[in-house]
Amino acid sequence: MRRTRIAGAVLLAGTVTGLAAGPAQAQEYRYWSFWDGKGGSWAYATQGPATLRPADGAVEGFRFTVGADSAAAGKPRGAADFDAICRDTPAEDGRKRIGIVLDFGTAADAPGGERPPKARTACAQVPEDASAGEALAAVARPLRYDANALLCAIAGYPKAGCAEAVSGSKGQAPSAAPSAGAGDRDGADGEGGGSGDGGPSAGLLGGIAAVVVLGAAAVWQARRRRG
Whole-angstrom Cα distance, residue 42 to residue 206? Predict the structure, then answer.
């Protein structure tokens, strides 16, 4: 049963990613985006938090955002500064420290009736083989998942909804989809070739799919510990 449910979540991840190959749609989504703070600057992550296993001293960022592709995904507005985040957390043998930056987004991106909490940082001290998702769980509970193990909320935000489509326009045409992992509406960290259709890209939908895998891994870990 465990393997069946996890396999189902992984299959869903592939299905979501596959949507990028469909007809162009100028549709925006409200979701948690995942960023890697290598070198002190943010880059759209090319791996999901369930599979990325950052080294000691890494910084990972999560930003609640609205966008039609990865080029429109807002990056965390806090600095990817490990020394500042983890300076009060001493190193321990057999464990690593990961800086976590949580940006709950803007009031304009918040679901109706909700107000985004203030951005914050945390230093996760986790086993040496821990994933970015496990580091997040160590410092940002409660996490909320949907029935398909998709990560919907970090630290209880938002209270409802899960990577839902957003109706209406923000008054600006979505930018062309960049290559996976590059860019955001505040300025790209890397150049990306785009289809120019303004529709959801593999970068965005793949990023949403990645948190499906994160959710599946978290469910499996919890059941393994209970067993």
Answer: 18
